[in-house]
Amino acid sequence: MNLLFLGTSAGVPTKTRNVSGIALRESKGKGWYLIDCGEGTQHQVLHTKLSFHSLKAILITHVHGDHCYGLPGILASAGMGGRKAPLTIVAPAGIKAWLEATCEATQLVLPFALEFIASDDLPSVEFESIAVTTFRLSHRAPCYAYGFAERKVDADLNIEKLTQKGIPRGPLWGQLKQGFDVEYAGEQLKSHDYLIFKNKPRKIVIAGDNDQPDLLMDACAGAQVLVH
């Protein structure tokens, strides 16, 4: 995983720092995630090699403008750029209401579907390579931290355990190695139970505004990096 800071200023931009926006890039391929997108974030993206075609999800920590005012523009530009694939948005419920009102008032029709997941429900969301967990923080508005943990890291099959279990060589072994759970003899087999990881999956926590640092203790369990 790789972090790219698109903006680190708070409240208002400065001549050298844009407001909040962080890109989290996957270890392999071009997939990436956008955490917060204050006004001007799409301009920051233009100075990178990131593409809105490979954007997997947008996650908003809270409704304040310096964390979300860039959202409609990003979606509009992604549509005008030819994006067709659905896009997941994880954000407080207020973001959905605001975005729907903005689309209606400005006649913004997107050529791709939006899947909205309310962070108020503290969801856990799994993407192909990364699992995201949500943690509640303390701020004037409902605010959240997101933990990003790798799902697929280099691993070898635990052949001894597979043999003892009587699981025959073949497609089932291949699916387990690729990280997929399988069913065998009426039993659900969890992939991670039959893998030997060469490296421990990495975890990054990205937090929104917060005035109670102790709320991040659970979020940071097992994490190597905290952005707050």
Commentary on this structure:
With 228 residues, the protein is of the alpha/beta class. Helices cover 19% and strands 30% of the residues. It has a 6-stranded mixed beta sheet with strand order 1-2-3-4-5-6. Strands 7-8-9-14-15 form a 5-stranded mixed beta sheet, with no helix packed on it. Strands 10-13 form a two-stranded antiparallel sheet. The protein folds into 2 domains: 2-153 and 200-227, Metallo-beta-lactamase, Chain A (4-Layer Sandwich); 155-193, no CATH class.
Topology:
Blueprint: E1 2-7, E2 21-25, E3 32-37, H1 41-46, E4 55-59, H2 71-80, E5 87-91, H3 93-106, E6 114-118, E7 124-126, E8 130-136, E9 144-150, E10 155-157, H4 159-165, H5 171-177, E11 182-184, E12 187-189, E13 195-197, E14 203-207, E15 225-227
| CATH 4th-level superfamily of the largest domain | Ribonuclease Z/Hydroxyacylglutathione hydrolase-like
The residue-averaged pLDDT reads 94
Strand order of the largest sheet: 1-2-3-4-5-6
Compute the gyration radius: what is it? 20 Å
Number of domains: 2
> How do the helices and strands follow one another from N- to C-terminus?
EEEHEHEHEEEEEHHEEEEE
**CATH class identity of the largest domain:** Alpha Beta
Label this structure with key terms.
alpha/beta, Metallo-beta-lactamase, Chain A, 15 strands, globular
